[in-house]
Each structure stands twice: as structure tokens, then as C-alpha cells.
Design brief:
Shape: globular
Strand content: 5-15%
Number of strands: 12
Distance between the termini: 31 Å
Structural class: alpha/beta
CATH class of the domain at 6-15 and 260-381: Alpha Beta
Number of helices: 12
CATH topology of the domain at 6-15 and 260-381: Aspartate Aminotransferase, domain 1
CATH superfamily of the domain at 6-15 and 260-381: Aspartate Aminotransferase, domain 1
Order of helices and strands: EHHEHEHEHEHEEEHHEEHEHHEH
């Protein structure tokens, strides 16, 4: 892109970091062998994969053998939920608990399982977008085989009480999975200390490449392979490993975790500057928890406007934001996340999500505030 833009849609995807690009190019040039091959080039590539697995697992607090590489977090979500459901069914347990504002990778998988005879309970997330542990505890039944609660919401950034939810599940002998796509690289995570049995992540949310993700599954959990073929990933996912992308994901996550405290302070200051500025616009409503949210997430509704039109007007000014999840882009329906908060359809359809990262600046924030104000006024006059 030759034209100067202000990119503020980091919840959808992020710019690859220099560290990730360097790792990817190094593997493309020097480690192009098939990791399953026994010759020298193949074994060199395998060593890169193993090194990346050890790096990522150490950052998550798990054993390297508990990490399976996938094409994305949607695949990881599917594999985690389907695996738990299959094991549960074999033991006469066909009840799954989740929330009403999960990513569609989770919700659509649950819909499919419901058609297959599973019972699904979706917890209320209330106005702030946070579940209440006591409601989770009441929802767990003798036939519950899995609880799946996203770590941080992709649209409104609210952070869930993951450690407590996991503890409740373990007390009841229920598996606990979290879609941690928005959290990994941005919030400290230790799967053992936080009582997490399975966790999904995706590299392109923390300045890694697209097309690569991972699933952590605690030792002893039997994973159902969604892709049949070879014995790659210890038989848990067939298909030749994407060595350059795997190495880049590890490099990106290592860099983000090492600089997490500094990045969080910087991005949170930008977020607060943005929230304050947008709050001055008449008829503005902040969605989600005010402070206990992702450092870079801002989601506002603006009464008497249309979020999609607002996003397009800003795009004409070179400002990239979104109306919510990129996976639901183009849908005529209002965000299921905002509807779960109790917003009316008209208010929900006026929402925009602005998601920041360490590459954003104060000048960009001030420009966004100014242009949002102008665009809102223009839409209200039309």
C-alpha cells in the first residue's frame, strides 16, 4: 500500500513483526526440507519445528508434547470441542457449556453437535460481557463433558475469569477449553496455573503470519484428528508442517511475551486517550467492561448512525477499523456479541471496533477521534 493509512483493526489481524519475517525467510531459504524426511535437510527442518514447539510451549507453561500445530485457531477450536464431545459421548456425557458471545468457530461447532444429539447451554455474559462463576457452577451437570469459554472477547475485549472457571470445572471433573486467540501474546498465560485443559491460539493476532495456529491439549486428552493422512504432529493432525510459518509464530510470540509489560502500558495509554475522546461525542456508548478489557480494544456504539457506513467513511480517510469480527463481515445481522450484552438491534448496528497495537501512535489516536466525530455528525445529518 503506497497510500498512508492508520491501521486500527488489530483484533482482525496484525502486521507481521520484523522478528517473525526474519524467522520465516530464514526457514524458506535454509530449512525447506520436509520435516518427515529422514535425510539431512528433512531433519534440519524438523529441528526448527521442534525448537518452535519448545519455545511456544514454554511461553504457555506446558510441555512441548502437549502442543499441536494447526492451520489456524478455528481449526484448533473445532478439534478441541469435537475431541471432548467424542470422549464425552463414549462415557455417556453429552452436555456442553459455553457462552452466548463466543467466536463463530465455537458456536457453529456447537450447533453441529446439537444436531448430533448433544445438549448445549450458553451462559449469559450480562451487560459487561463477563460470565459469573456462580452461574457456571450451577450450569454444570453430571453429564457435562466440556466447558468452553473464550479468554477475551474478540469484539468488546472483555476478559473472563478463566482461572476460576477452570477451577470449577476441575472440581466437577469437567474438561475446560478456552479460545485464547485475543489473549495470547497480550495477557500472561500459564495453562497449568490457570486450570486450562485445552487452549486455541493463532499467530496472526500477535504479529505472526496468517495460516498457522496451535492447540494446547493437556496430557491424557485424546484428540480426534480432523484431517486424515500421514502421522505428522504425533498422529493428531495429518499434513506436512508449515516450517516457515511455525518458526515465525514462535519468534513473534517470544518477542511479544518478552515485551508484554512495556507494550501493555503503552497501548493501554493509547486506549484510554481514545476512549476519553470518543466519549465526548454525544450519544456514544462504550461496550464491554470499562477497565478489565484487552489493552488495545475499544468498541463504541454511536446512536443514530450505522457502524458499517461509519467504517466506510473512515476508510475513505485512510483509517482502518471494523464493525466487529472480520469473520462476520458483510452479515446483515447485528453483532451477536452486542446482542448478548442486551443492546437493541439499532444500537448494535451502530457499533465500531477500534483495536490498537504497539505500532499505533498518539497522533493517530487524535486523528481517529477527530475523523470519527466528523463522520458521526455527517451520518446524523443525512
Amino acid at each position: 500500500m503506497s497510500e498512508k493509512i492508520i491501521y486500527a483493526d488489530n483484533a482482525a489481524t496484525t502486521k507481521m513483526s520484523a522478528a517473525a519475517k526474519e524467522a520465516m525467510l530464514r526457514c524458506i531459504d535454509d530449512y525447506y526440507g520436509n520435516p518427515s524426511s529422514l535425510h539431512r535437510a528433512g531433519q534440519a527442518a524438523l529441528k526448527e519445528v521442534q525448537g518452535a514447539r519448545e519455545t511456544i510451549s514454554a511461553l504457555l507453561g506446558c510441555d512441548a508434547k502437549e502442543l499441536t500445530f494447526t492451520s489456524c485457531a478455528s481449526e484448533a477450536d473445532n478439534q478441541a470441542i469435537i475431541s471432548a464431545a467424542k470422549t464425552g459421548a463414549q462415557n455417556g456425557k453429552k452436555h456442553i457449556i459455553s457462552t452466548s458471545f463466543e467466536h463463530h468457530a465455537v458456536l457453529k461447532t456447537l450447533e453441529k453437535l446439537k444436531d448430533e444429539g448433544f445438549y448445549i447451554t450458553l451462559l449469559n455474559v450480562h451487560e459487561t460481557g463477563v460470565i459469573r462463576p456462580e452461574e457456571l457452577e450451577k450450569a454444570i451437570r453430571p453429564d457435562t463433558c466440556l466447558v468452553s469459554v473464550m479468554y477475551a472477547n474478540n469484539e468488546i475485549g472483555s476478559i473472563q475469569p478463566i482461572e476460576e472457571a477452570g477451577r470449577l470445572c476441575h472440581e466437577k471433573g469437567v474438561l475446560f477449553h478456552t479460545d485464547a486467540v485475543q489473549a495470547v501474546g497480550h495477557i500472561p498465560i500459564d495453562v497449568k496455573k490457570q486450570n486450562i485443559d485445552m487452549l486455541s491460539l493463532s499467530a496472526h493476532k500477535f504479529h505472526g503470519p496468517k495460516g498457522i495456529g496451535a492447540l494446547y491439549a493437556k496430557k491424557g486428552i485424546l484428540l480426534t484428528s480432523l484431517i486424515n493422512g500421514g502421522e505428522q504432529e504425533r498422529g493428531k493432525r495429518a499434513g506436512t508442517e508449515n516450517v516457515p510459518a511455525i518458526a515465525a509464530m514462535a519468534a513473534a510470540l517470544k518477542e511479544e511475551c518478552e515485551n508484554m509489560d512495556e507494550n501493555t502500558v503503552y497501548v493501554k495509554a493509547l486506549r484510554e486517550r481514545l476512549i476519553f475522546g470518543l466519549s465526548q461525542i454525544k450519544g456514544s456508548v462504550l461496550n464491554g467492561e470499562r477497565y478489565d478489557r484487552l489493552a488495545g480494544n475499544v468498541n463504541f456504539c454511536f446512536e443514530q448512525t450505522d457502524g458499517e457506513m461509519l467504517s466506510l467513511l473512515l476508510s475513505e480517510k485512510g483509517i482502518c477499523i471494523s464493525t466487529g469480527s472480520a469473520c462476520a463481515s458483510g452479515s446483515p445481522e447485528p453483532s451477536h456479541v452486542l446482542m448478548a450484552l442486551g443492546r437493541s438491534r439499532s444500537i448494535a448496528k451502530s457499533a465500531v471496533r477500534i483495536s490498537l497495537c504497539r505500532y499505533n501512535t498518539e497522533d493517530e489516536i487524535d486523528c481517529i477521534i477527530s475523523e470519527v466525530r466528523k463522520a458521526v455528525e455527517k451520518l446524523r445529518r443525512s
